[in-house]
Amino acid sequence: MTEVAGLAPELAGAKEGQGQVPVASAGERFTSYDVEAFEVPGGREENWRFTPLKRLRGLHDGTAALDGAAAIEVGGAGGTADARSADAPRGVTVETVGRDDTRLGDGGVPADRVAAAAWSAFREATVVTLDGTPEPVTISVTGPGAGADAAVHLQLRTTAHTEATVVIEYRGSGTVADNVEVVLGDGSRLTVVITEEWAEDAVHVGAQHFSLGRDATVKATSVLLGGDLVRISPTVSYRGPGGDAELLGLGYADAGQHLEQRLFVDHAVPHCRSNVLHKNALQGAAGRPDAHTVWIGDVLIRAAAENTETFEFNRNLVLTEHARADSVPNLEIETGEIAGAGHASATGRFDDEQLFYLCSRGIPEDVARRLVVRGFFGEILNAITLPELRERLEAAIESELAISGV
Questions:
Q1: Residue 406 pLDDT
Q2: Which residues of 292-308 are buried (b: 16+ CB within 10 A; e: fewer)?
Q3: Which family does the record claim for this protein (predicted)?
């Protein structure tokens, strides 16, 4: 191990492993709350090679001040509250806490430099606790404004055997780095929808930490639509057997947009399940940077995780020229005693046979193309059980199709 001046041996090894020696297993990835424990990305590292670092506005190298403020509001059937208010929807507790709150970190530890920087920079965290069967809850995160940057920390918790639905909405302008912790109590069931509906100038680099208790179930749907650059890194871990994680998602990238999702599911205990499905559509334009989507799916089944069942699938639909989709599914299995495991990826343009079928029945080609795209996303959108939210997202996608002329 090469020693690095001023660092403990384990941190020196982490820097060496990130910058020089490829990590052989996803189980060996380095995590730390300390931003200085991570090497400044240069763009050649495996976990940064698809990300345009120049567009991160200093989030990766420490030049972003992260001294702005992002607004967080929590609302539901019982009313609306900001993070400082004692008034919250029924069955929901909203707290603003300091960095010394012992619950922070229960979801997971930052695994890259930006997540560690967000952890180091936030002054107060918002903790939302769900108990019983509350009405659907909406958490809105509004950026600090054009030219400003902010660090955000949000923790969502469920008590044992709670059943709840939560929508987390990102909107507004500016640059945001954040950590979102989702900590599920034993036997609880959580449905969460996370929407990225930023203004065109926004940059968001976020880490999502899902920690599932015994027999807990989470169904998380991610919708990436807005922003200049959005990079999300969800991590799923299991604290006891019987956990079940279903992760669905869609992204729609316009010319110049970069949408990236880097997933890690860590099966470390037996009798757990995970299912991942993410779909992207891309439309570029001549004379502008390519529309770019990136999906990295890492699933690790450790030796102790017997009777695991997992599958991950990414599909990308390229609508126009000047668009690029990168997709890398990875599956690492350390035990032969599993219920089933698989992964797949597919990228392509419009299906000519589908278009021919529709056009042969009198449907104009432009309408036929729009129907194909709607059908492509239908599986994800239909999984959203809140009608108003689903209709709003369908309208947003329809607007994207109108822009492209599809």
A1: 54
A2: bbbbbbbbbbbeebbeb
A3: Belongs to the iron-sulfur cluster assembly SufBD family.
As a whole number of angstroms, the distance between CA 98 and CA 125 comes to 6
Residue-range domain boundaries for the chain: 62-350, 351-406
Q: Alpha-carbon distance 166 to 296, whole Å?
A: 25
> Which two three-digit tokens encode residue 398?
């329809």
Query: CB–CB of 294/326 below 8 Å?
Result: yes
Nearest to 103 by CA among 73, 127, 74, 132: 127
Nearest to 247 by CA among 266, 229, 263: 263
- Residue 222 token pair: 């991610």
Q: Classify the phi-psi angles of 66: left when phi > 0, otherwise alpha if psi is within -120 to 50, otherwise beta.
A: left
Q: ∠42-44-50 over CA atoms, to 5°?
A: 100
Give yes or no for a contact between 168 and 194, defined as CB atoms under 8 angstroms apart.
yes
Distance CA 60, CA 40 (A): 7
Q: Alpha carbon of 172 to those of 115, 183, 196, 227, 264: distances in Å? A: 20, 26, 10, 9, 28
What is the CA angle 314-388-400, rounded to 5?
50
| Contact criterion met (CB below 8 Å) for 66 and 35 | no
pTM: 0.90
**Predicted confidence (pLDDT) per residue in 52-105, tens digit:** 999 999 999 999 999 999 999 999 744 445 554 445 778 999 999 999 999 999
10-46, pLDDT tens digit by residue?
A: 444 444 444 444 556 788 889 999 999 999 999 999 9
